[in-house]
Design a protein that fits this description.
Elements lengths: L1 H13 L12 E7 L8 E5 L8 H4 L10 H7 L1 E6 L2 H32 L12 H12 L3 H4 L4 H30 L1
């Protein structure tokens, strides 16, 4: 089933649609006509072939009388535009799928992360400084075999613990100096 859907997506992207099966939004002629005498400027759009992309075929109804049509059409700038709405739709679907997968992954991590993490000794408030010093001394006495990281998560947690210890030491130094200066 997955192979069939993948083949359908590849076929839609690689096989260009024929001129007859293109939707109205895929091809058009756009004429931009500036103000002329007492007529305000306007933009005209029409689904015509590339050879018929000119003022005479696109501008309907003609805002000027018969003898001024040629002068009015010389001022108009007509461009043939072609795009693939199928490709645009497929790109948007892929983009939204990636965003959805990332959101699901984030939700999964938010649910699983508290179950994986161990309680942290450094999350106590600063007024329990003595308890923090005891926990810090116990963390420093851990055997070296436990510091060896086997997974990426353990390495990240180890680096986070080292950083927290450094921050705790800096806090202790700053508060001690502050107490000595006061």
């Amino acid at each position: 089933m997955k192979l069939l859907s993948l083949a359908a997506v590849v076929w839609c992207v690689l096989v260009p649609p024929s001129e007859a099966t293109k939707s109205f939004e895929d091809i058009r002629c756009k004429c931009i006509c500036p103000p002329y005498r007492n007529i305000s400027g306007q933009i005209y759009k029409k689904n015509v072939s590339q050879k018929d992309c000119n003022c005479l075929h696109v501008v309907e109804p003609m805002p000027v009388p018969g003898n001024d049509v040629e002068a009015y059409c010389l001022l108009c700038e007509c461009k043939y535009e072609e795009r693939s709405t199928t490709t645009i739709k497929i790109i948007i679907i892929i983009y939204l799928s990636v965003i959805g997968a990332l959101l699901l992954y984030m939700a999964f991590l938010m649910l699983v992360d508290p179950l994986i993490r161990k309680p942290d000794a450094y999350t106590h408030p600063l007024h329990n400084e003595e308890e923090n010093e005891d926990a810090h001394s116990l963390a420093a006495v851990r055997p070296p075999a436990s510091t060896r990281a086997n997974t990426v998560l353990e390495r990240v947690e180890g680096a986070q613990q080292r950083w927290k210890r450094q921050v705790q030491e800096q806090r202790k130094t700053v508060f001690d100096r502050h107490k000595m200066l006061s």
